[in-house]
Amino acid sequence: MQEACFYKPLNFFNILDMFKTKNLVNDVNDVPVTWIFEHFCNLKEKLKGQDVKIKSLFNEEKTPSMCIYTDEYNTYRYKDFSSGKSGSAINLVKDLHSYTYHQACNKIVEIYNDYILHKGKYDVELFEQASKYKVTKFTVRQWTTQDEYYWTQYNIGSRLLHEHNVRPLSVYCMQKDDTELCIKGLYIYGYLKEDGTLYKIYQPKTLDKKFIKVKSYIQGLEQCKPPYKNLLITSSLKDLMSIKSLKLSNINVVAADSENSMIESAYIESWQNQYENILIMFDNDDAGIQAMVKYKEKYPFIKVALLPLSKDISDSIKDHGVKKVKEYLVPILNKKINEKEENS
Hints:
Elements: H1 12-22, H2 33-40, E1 52-54, E2 66-70, E3 76-80, E4 86-87, H3 89-97, H4 101-119, E5 134-140, H5 145-152, H6 158-163, E6 166-176, E7 179-184, E8 189-192, E9 198-202, E10 211-213, E11 230-234, H7 237-245, E12 251-255, H8 265-274, E13 277-280, H9 286-298, E14 303-304, H10 313-320, H11 322-337, H12 339-343
Parallel strand pairs: 11-12, 11-13, 13-14
Antiparallel strand pairs: 1-2, 2-3, 3-4, 5-6, 6-7, 6-8, 8-9, 9-10
Helix pairs in contact: 2-3, 3-4, 7-10, 10-11
């Protein structure tokens, strides 16, 4: 006689418990990046491709300066301008709680699983890259005495501005979908490549949109002169031109898009074969120092130099004068250049 098969029927709560358990994760890579940012930043909106600006999680502030944005791979990252901190979702949790990277990963998995056990699931929104304004056209104007006053306080004259293709603009226009936005102003400058292609707009008197990146570009690379033995990497075209205004010998100067974007390894490796010394000098603040540390960790042969005056080199010239900056800067660079000989 065949035995009867007895089973306990599944009710709604049994199914719900099974569903929750099935969706638990063991690896931080299985946790949606959008959930990490939404949870740890306490966002009121679902992330589905749009950029979000909130008040800093690291400092008290009245005006939001922390951006949650998508990179070129449509992956969310963050940048907090008040503290200089930036990076991935894991970096955010690591920075918020002073965790190690491993601790941050474990905490994310733990809290996400707790969320699943209580909520059942996390619905990932249909993710589409939010359309953004893109610069479509610009108009070059004549230089004025106001422009002259602005640039010469950093010891940057017409020769350097012409050499690095800096042009004053009367207007530039940006397009998003069917909407065009045109901006006019007195202090607007276009940074151009040798072929006339616009790669960045600089608005020094505008607090929230000081730089508008149009294309990626290593500033100063087209102006490098062989066969100089040394290369100095700095963080902006303005600093680059201020350094060149000091007429230092046997050194080329380039600048990345910003302190927050590292120069591609192919360039660094090529420069390692081309130059005897590669030095880096970013801003004299937490963000600049952290950025230089990242370069040093990835490329141990790069020599970190710091100018202990104002925040950056151009401001140091403005605040302390060319003579004092040169008196400080030359010995610092010479010491770094000669480190290899001293250590050999």
